[in-house]
Amino acid sequence: MLWFQGNSMQLAKHSFQLLLRNLSASETALPVLTLFTKDPCPLCDEAKEVLEPYRNRFILQEVDITLPENSAWYDRYKFDIPVFHLNGQFLMMHRVNLSKLEKQLQKLEQQGAGG
Question: How far, in Å, CA of 83 to CA of 42, rounded?
Answer without folding.
Answer: 13
